[in-house]
Amino acid sequence: MSAAADVDGGPARDGRPGGAPWLDEHEQRVWRSYLEGTQRLWEHLGAVLDADGDVPLQEYEVLVRLSETPGGSLRMSELAHALVHSRSRLTHTVGRMEARGLVERRACPDDGRGVLCVVTDEGRAALERHAPAHVASVRAALFDLLEPAEVDALGSALEKVAANLRG
Q1: Phi and psi dihedrals of 108, rounded to 5?
Q2: Three-state DSSP class for 112?
Q3: Are 31 and 23 in contact (CB under 8 A)?
Q4: Which of 15, 17, 20, 153 could serve as a FRET partner for 48 with CA atoms 20 to 30 Å apart?
Q5: CA distance 130 to 77
Q6: Cβ-Cβ contacts under 8 Å for 152 (sequence gap 6 or more)
Q7: CA distances from 95 to 31, 98, 100, 134, 148 (A)
Q8: DSSP 100
Q9: 14: CB partners within 8 A, 6+ apart
Q10: Facing residues of 60 across strands?
Q11: Which contiguous run of DSSP H or E holds residue 107?
Q12: What's the average model confidence in pLDDT over 90-111?
């Protein structure tokens, strides 16, 4: 399909693929700021946890999600959905964590096909060790920089995006 063809094969509106309007200069600046800001934030938060070397950010997020549930467990499918990870990616992450004693996988008592991921005492201890530095770095790198109205606007905007894409 040529760049001047629409997704249905017809000519594109405004000569653009699919006929979608380009981002204007302001939207492009906001989009690029969002991309750079989120990437740098994740890189920074990961570096803080990597300094201790035993729980990468991806694993820390698994521990957080599990610790927030009754019984410290979630079905693997629910955990993958909550973390916005593929089941395959989560399976590999949980496998590494299980090998280090941070979590266990168990059969779901109400569904023989389901698998629960359960935080262990060692996983809770790791979370408790890392939480103060993680929270301090989130606060310093994000919330301390923003005015309360900006925090509200950011939260509202991202909630809309997430709800729209959650389907």
Answers
A1: -70, 130
A2: strand
A3: yes
A4: 153
A5: 26
A6: none
A7: 35, 5, 9, 23, 40
A8: T
A9: 21
A10: none
A11: strand 103-108
A12: 94
Report DSSP state, residue 21: P
pLDDT tens column, 26-78: 999 999 999 999 999 999 999 999 887 789 999 999 999 999 999 999 999 99
Q: Which amino acid is at 94?
A: V
The single residue listed with the structure tokens 């760049």 is: 3
Tokens of 52: 């201790």
Q: Which amino acid is at 6?
A: D
User: How much is the pTM?
Assistant: 0.83
Instruction: For the chain, state the CA radius of gyration.
Output: 21
Identify how many contiguous H helices and E strands the chain contains and give both numbers: 6, 3
Residue with tokens 């750079």: 36
Q: Are 123 and 103 in contact (CB under 8 A)?
A: yes
Find tokens 């109205």 and name the residue.
Answer: 149
156, exposed or middle or buried, with CB in 10 Å at 0-12, 13-18, 19+? exposed
Q: In whole angstroms, what is the distance from residue 6 CA to residue 15 CA? A: 9
| Ordered DSSP codes for 131-161 | HHHHHHHHHHHTGGGS-HHHHHHHHHHHHHH
Backbone dihedral angles phi then psi of residue 51, each to the nearest 5 degrees = -60, -35
